[in-house]
Amino acid sequence: MQLPSKPKTPLADEDKEKIARMILAIEAIKKETARRGLGKGKGGHGGMPCPVPGCRGRVAFIVYVMNGHVMASCTVKGCVQFRE
């Protein structure tokens, strides 16, 4: 028996923009945390200017010592916020 496939719905332009901002921010924050020597076994926290073009906020981040995962949030509401 074959299950019916779900129809694929295209992403809205707003969703594509959010995803692009998120990827840009994750890559920049990962570079910054690596530059500071943070990761699994060496946690810490910090901040940096938001890497999203046109945003004038700051991104605060925390790196967890146990697994090196990052939690970050921009000071501008609706910009970027994520947790690994």
Report on this model:
The mean pLDDT is 90. The chain has a four-stranded antiparallel beta sheet, with helices on one face. It has a domain at 38-84. It has one helix and four strands. It is an alpha+beta fold and 84 residues long. It has one helix spanning 13-35; strands spanning 44-49, 58-63, 70-74, 81-83.
| N-to-C CA distance | 37 Å
* CA-based shape: flat
H/E element sequence = HEEEE
Largest sheet: 4 strands, antiparallel
Low-confidence stretches: none
The Cα radius of gyration reads 16 Å
DSSP strand (E) fraction? 15-25%
In total, the number of strands is 4
Structural classification: alpha+beta
Rounded mean pLDDT is 90
- Write out the strand line-up for the largest beta sheet, numbering strands in chain order: 1-2-3-4
Q: How many DSSP helices?
A: 1
Amount of helix: 25-40%
Feature tags:
84 residues, alpha+beta, single chain, 27% helix
Please render the helix and strand layout as text.
Layout: H1 13-35, E1 44-49, E2 58-63, E3 70-74, E4 81-83
Antiparallel strand pairs: 1-2, 2-3, 3-4
Summarize the structure.
The protein has 84 residues and is an alpha+beta fold. Helix content is 27%, strand content 24%. A four-stranded antiparallel beta sheet has the order 1-2-3-4, with helices on one face.
